[in-house]
Design a protein that fits this description.
This protein has a domain at about 15-180. Helices cover about 70% and strands about 0% of the residues. It is built from 15 helices and no strands. It has helices at about 15-40, 50-85, 90-115, 115-135, 140-150, 160-180, 185-215, 225-245, 255-270, 275-280, 290-305, 320-345, 355-375, 385-410, 425-429.
Length: about 425
């Protein structure tokens, strides 16, 4: 098999490591900023009812444009030049993105710590521009890769390439919504677009790429890849416009909630959950990423949460969005990152960790969100505090687990790190 494939040299192989490290490190000040918002009495703190949507927008952008996106970009820079035998991506692109991304996050969080509303908004705007600039900077190499594939008649893995081309466009839309946030419905549109369209599509494509491309399970026919992603995008966009229309009084809240659930239900059904379960449980279980598999199942849970009548959002603007990011999006991205990392270690897929502890930590956070939604107050007056600690414990534990795993595998492990990941031929097939 190895003789059938020419393995190109890529100087960017292994570039996922600084991107992953950046992601893990920037989670720490992010959590401190969230804690600050919970403890202070500023005009925009969690103790106030004012500016809740603006803060939710900013914090979500810090996740989707910032530390979580760093892992996605790390995967792109590590795999795309290697699998597509392309020189479109360079070390300069990688370093430029890292620097701009960290500075942008730092500015936004500095604004949050200022406890000054006008300063916070100004620094958030500058930070969002920088984060957007960092992501837009990968548009050119992604476009070059696409053009090279057409010119040289190469399979460029269009499903995997879609996020790389879609992300720069998406961030411009979200940034525009923030700049024009005083227009009715624009902030809500950008918020939903960021979560449902951009991050939801990334999660869906990573799930498809893992089970079909990396593992060759054929959950979805190759010819159906584009329709699956395209239908999700259409449904997600319908939801975004319905949110704007609801804010403008043009449709009912129930209709907006229904449109919210549709892309999640489609993502769940289209990825063939029953067929996947046949291969992941019982005596016929095949090796796979348990994180990505669990992320796929969470699409169903988020869809149900979206349509439950009178589901309490608590202090969240949209608890289903929070759950989607915390479960499906985070698990699919972290699962893909860890699987790529093990591929570079050439670790047998039969001997890889299932990361059950990480799944348990994640489950604790999701349970806290469910208990908020169903108004379960078994802890009396301390209920909100308990749920806050549950979510923080879950996220800190997940972060610590990822840091320990990466440090152990890179510095304390006897396994040899390889520039070319194992089963390279499956990435390029």
């Amino acid at each position: 098999m190895a003789g059938r494939f020419k393995v190109p040299f890529s100087g960017l192989s292994g570039s996922y490591i600084p991107h992953f490290a950046s992601s893990m490190i920037m989670i720490i000040p992010f959590m401190l900023a969230v804690t600050w918002l919970s403890a202070t009495e500023s005009e925009y703190s969690f103790r106030q009812d004012n500016y809740r949507l603006e803060i939710a927008f900013i914090l979500t952008a810090l996740i989707s444009f910032g530390w979580l996106m760093s892992m996605v970009v790390g995967i792109v820079f590590d795999l795309f030049p290697l699998t597509h035998d392309s020189k479109a991506y360079t070390q300069t692109h990688s370093n430029q993105y890292l620097l701009i991304n960290i500075i942008g996050q730092a500015l936004i969080m500095g604004g949050i710590f200022s406890n000054n509303l006008s300063l916070m908004f100004e620094m958030a705007t500058i930070g969002l521009v920088l984060l957007s600039w960092g992501l837009i900077s990968i548009a050119w190499p992604s476009w070059r890769l696409h053009l090279d594939s057409i010119e040289n008649e190469k399979n460029c893995g269009n499903v995997a390439l879609a996020p790389a081309l879609m992300i720069p466009v998406s961030v411009l839309i979200v940034l525009a919504c923030w700049i024009f946030r005083k227009e009715t419905g624009m902030l809500e549109f950008g918020f939903s677009f960021n979560v449902v369209v951009m991050m939801g599509t990334i999660a869906l494509t990573l799930i498809l790429a893992h089970f079909n491309r990396r593992l060759s399970w054929d959950l979805v026919k190759y010819s159906d890849f584009r329709p699956v992603v395209a239908i999700y995008l259409v449904l997600a966009l319908v939801h975004c416009f319905s949110v704007m229309m609801y804010e403008r009084g043009q449709i009912t809240e129930n209709l907006a909630n229904i449109t919210q659930s549709l892309p999640f239900f489609w993502a769940f059904v289209s990825t063939r959950p029953l067929k996947m379960l046949q291969s992941t449980v019982g005596k016929n279980r095949k090796p796979h990423s348990a994180l990505i598999g669990q992320g796929q199942m969470y699409f169903l849970i988020v869809g149900i949460m979206s349509i439950i009548p009178d589901f309490d959002e608590g202090k969240f603007i949209n608890i289903s969005y929070v759950t989607l990011i915390f479960s499906t999006v985070m698990l699919s991205i972290w699962g893909s990152g860890l699987y790529l990392h093990y591929d570079h270690l050439h670790k047998s897929i039969h001997n890889r960790s299932k990361h059950n502890k990480l799944l348990i930590f994640n489950g604790i956070g999701v349970i806290s969100l469910f208990m908020i939604g169903f108004r379960i107050t078994v802890f009396g007056d301390n209920t909100d505090l308990v749920y806050y600690f549950m979510r923080n414990f879950a996220l800190f534990s997940m972060m610590a687990y990822m840091l320990i795993t990466m440090f152990r595998d890179l510095f304390l492990s006897l396994d040899t790190w390889h520039r070319v990941p194992m089963h390279y031929e499956r990435y390029v097939s």
